[in-house]
Amino acid sequence: MPSLYSLDPKQTLRGKIEILDNATFIPLDNIARPKRTLLGGVLREDGSYVENSKCYVDQNRSPTRIPSENLRNIAQFRSGKWLYGGRFDTRFGHFLVETIARLWALDHLPFDVEGVVFMQGSAARAVRPKRRVASMAHLFGLIQDVPKPEIIIRPVTFETLVVPPQGCGSGELGAGCPEFRHFMRSRFSATPDPHGSKRLYMSRSALDAAPGQVLFERDIETALAAQGYRIFHPQDHDIAEQIAQIRAADHIVGVEGSAFHLVSYAAHANAQIGMIRRRRFEGGPLAHCRGFFPDQTHDLDALSYSFTAEDKPREIGNAVLDFQRLETQLKETGFVDASFSLPHHNQNDEEREIERVRQRILA
């Protein structure tokens, strides 16, 4: 499938920023549309659609599409200068790569803006704009000197609206554009100070009721704990604790997941990052970490095969790893010493564990 949107990690986007007078921002509307099609974006004063306003999840999924021009007729007018932010997705990983993906433009404007305006993340969910913004203040607040965010739920014509292209995202878009990476390096919170173990394992094993499991992950944890790794379950710690521990770590290993988006922003400059794949593609958190740490992000690809709990479209797979291959890769990349050993599991062990995982997810 050809990419619907691509980002070259070396190609700058600052020259594509549009600064528009009397442009109308039309958030996700309720017009009948094909399933999974989201209509919303920005129309210029002459009614033409601003391509920069398209919002992408990743390189393959359909973006938001052109809204009805008729909705300009009910738009309210707002004076001042504003930045278009795209979709306000409140899911942790998506927030860290999609919701903030246009803020980089703030570094390249000849004026200040009064705020950042977003559309809601999904047309299917009831929106309480202020409550939704407040629910993500702990993440938005990690970025220094950013104007206040606001979710727009009705069409608004802005005196001046800045519309940059999306500079990061999920999948292969995770590496981001150079401006986005520079922005996050310079604006990401300077606090808290590093605190915690020098060796860190980012675990998913406590998320055993959710898809995306790795079989026998607790065996990996036991073996790494013997090598001095702290077994860390991010969801059990607040953001400040997560950042402090990530900043303290020289070696960070874990199963690929959204927690690694925070690693991209918070890890210190010399950190070594080892990501254990649970999916075949090289996008997502792996691409994101590679964008920020191109020479220090290690792709630990020991995936043998994957399975789903039940046959559903777009269901997230669960991974079965080749532990011998993973053990070798961890040694070769310097995350463990020669004494490190992972246990062997036979086919019967795997079959029993696969069934246990299926039943746990479906419970």
Q: Order of strands across the biggest sheet?
A: 2-1-6-3-4-5
What best-fitting shape do the alpha-carbon axes yield? globular
Distance between the termini: 35 Å
Strand content: 15-25%
What class would the helix/strand composition place it in? alpha/beta
Q: What is the C-alpha radius of gyration, as a whole number of Å?
A: 22 Å
Please tally the β strands and state the result.
Answer: 13
Helix content: 10-25%
The largest β sheet comes out as:
6 strands, mixed
The total of helices stands at 10
Summarize the structure.
By secondary structure, the protein is of the alpha/beta class. The protein contains 10 helices and 13 strands.
Walk me through the structure.
The relative contact order is 0.13. The two termini are 35 Å apart. This protein has a 6-stranded mixed beta sheet. Helix 7 runs parallel beside helix 8 (285-292). The model has no long low-confidence stretch (mean pLDDT 93). With 363 residues, the protein is α/β, with parallel strands linked by helices. It is built from 10 helices and 13 strands. The chain has helices at 92-99, 129-135, 137-140, 178-187, 217-225, 239-248, 259-266, 285-292, 323-332, 347-362; strands spanning 18-26, 41-43, 76-88, 116-120, 149-151, 156-163, 199-202, 230-232, 251-255, 272-276, 297-300, 303-307, 318-321. Helix content is 25%, strand content 20%. It is globular, with a radius of gyration of 22 Å.
